Amino acid sequence: MEDAEFDDILDDWFIESLKTYKDLHVYQLEHPTQVLEWTSGKSVCVAGYSQSKNEILELRLPLKLLADENKSLCAERDFKVSHGGFTDGPVRCLTHIPGTRCAVTNDGLSSDLQVWDLGGEESGVIRRTGSIKGKRSASERGSRIAARPSSAPQVLHGAQISDVQLTELTSGETLYKLETGSADPLSSLQFVSDTVFLAGCCNGSVYVADTRTSAPPQFSHSPYSDESVIWWTDGAAGPHPSSCRVIRVSSSGQAVVSDLRNLGGAGCQAQLDIKTPGRCSQVDVKVSWAPTLDDCISVSGFSGVVQIYNTRLWGAEPQEARPLFEHRGHAVSSQQTDDSVPTFVTSHIWHPERPRTLLSAASDGSVHVWDWVDPDRQGGSPTP
What we know:
By secondary structure, this protein is mostly beta strands.
């Protein structure tokens, strides 16, 4: 792409963004990250994934984004590094322990976990304080990690469904093990209540279990029988675990919504408007329910775009779905040549309290925080 053509595309997108975003802030990391994890409503943790030494950083969001009033009077538009340290290898998964200054990571090479102190007011250094031994000395995808929401610091972790166990961080004691003979690799792991968790496998099957009991888990097969596709899963917690809704998205763009009362059924489904079906990386794709916007999901990892869909518009039978909104900032701002590798979104995450604010990262090291405008509310149509 010629420089003049690239500048025109960037200018057009910038003009469009004045109408489609309430806020948009950009940060450039020295090396890209695959992890974005909130440590508070104002700060997020990131870390590199190169095979050698990497930075692990806690970034404070721009003060202008956080200002509810008089934004024009707030001069601070940049991310700030509040704490930082170094890892000896890649970080492919990172989970913050609620109510603490502790995080747990996995390098994607084995199922072992690393435990980190994120520092405090008196120290800006993030340092490693311990480790947890996993069941696999080598793993194709590494471990998934989920922090128990309200208890002494405990993490659920595993690389395969048969590996899943709950470990207390302070003592290293194993408090629970999932009893299953399956060796399916995990794509996701999360608590939907303080004791009930959801485990999604790469083949599309889903397990639901309660850490208070050794009873067999609830199990659901993949929505489709095609073994060539990979699936990613997310659960939207409700007032009771049984009301949790589950979204499954495949590498070919199929999306299926069900709930824990009928995991085998499809409440609604769609064919997503993804740009490069089947060409995504196993570790980069992410699907996530919006925490404070009913029925909305976000999807990334198929391209340089983050898409937002309204599942309320889907039906019982598969249908093509158009995104409600697309964040194209990573793709647009990365100049491509005939020989260059396309920019992919490597991770994204919704803000836990601000309904339309998301954070996203891409393979070029860019990090964007953006507050999007609902096209229906501005009288327009979904972004092209």
